[in-house]
Amino acid sequence: MASSRSERLAAGQVALVGLFVTALVTAQLTASKLLLFGLPVSLPVTGSALVLPGAALAYAVTFFASDCYSELYGRRPAQVMVNVGFAMNFVMLALVYSTVQAPIAPFSGVGQGEFSTVLLSSANIVAGSLLAYVVSQNWDVVAFHAIRDRTDGDHLWLRNIGSTATSQAIDTVIFVTVAFWAAPTLFGVGQANSLEQILTLVVGQYLLKLAIAVGDTPFVYAVVSAFRSRGLADPAPAAD
Q1: 95-102 contact pairs (CB < 8 A, 24+)
Q2: 20 to 30 Å CA-CA from 165: which of 6, 99, 123, 205?
Q3: Which helix (H) or strand (E) holds 87?
């Protein structure tokens, strides 16, 4: 019986870690593409469109996964997952770089230039995404449990939205500033964007991430409830 319970708990953890890492790797591989979403209304700074890095969509899923993981398995395991994920970024970059550098077959359906352009992000994108990741994801776990402690474990919606909203703001400012202004300016990697473009990217990316944070709250409740009811996580502690 104890072995069966341990196996179920491990299965739940593996499922959420798998979702987290999958979204994280996808975000790294899609960070260099800029997306443009039209809006039905015009907003300050962004105007009638949101411009944001392609990584924003996948990266928002990492916060969903980490919040579910934090709620179900605790602060320390969540921090371990986040920091292991940080190390796996370097593994992914090494694997991609080695594949790009490997000789290409003359009959390959994808050319060397296209393959390198799509998969190998520029140094400024890598620097921005890694720094933003390690700061914002650790803050997300800390903020999530700080809110949890202050509310005595109640109001899951508050800690999900509160932790994600603040950590996404940190992530957005760091990533956009480093990737599109600081790194190009200081190291001559690519072309630095103007302040207006930086603000547009920050606001556009954050608005989407904030909308996802609010919209994914019912799914966080659903995942937490499903995992606990199926024995994939310990039951919720009894109310005092």
Answers
A1: 96/29, 96/120
A2: 123
A3: helix 75-101
Provide the β-strand partners of residue 35. 52
Taking residue 183's Cβ as centre, other Cβ atoms within 10 Å add up to 22
Closest C-alpha among 74, 92, 100 to residue 13: 74
pTM of the model as a whole: 0.86
In order of 50, 53, 64, 147, the CA distances from 163 in angstroms are 23, 22, 11, 8
| pLDDT tens digits, one per residue of 175-231 | 888 887 776 665 555 566 677 778 888 887 888 888 888 899 999 999 999 999 998
Taking Cα atoms as reference points, which of 201, 140, 214 lies closest to residue 172? 201
123-150 and 156-177 helices cross at what angle (nearest 10)? 160
153 Rama class: left (phi>0) / alpha (psi -120 to 50) / beta: left
Q: Give backbone dihedrals phi and psi of 237, rounded to 5 degrees, phi first.
A: -60, 145
* Domain edges within the chain: 2-101+114-227
pLDDT in tens, 51-82: 777 788 888 899 999 999 999 999 999 999 99
Query: For helices 112-119 and 75-101, what crossing angle results, to 10°?
Result: 160
The CATH-assigned architecture of domain 2-101+114-227 is Orthogonal Bundle (1.10)
Can you tell me the distance from the alpha carbon of 142 to that of 67, in angstroms, rounded to the nearest whole number? 11
CA dist 78 and 147 (Å) reads 15
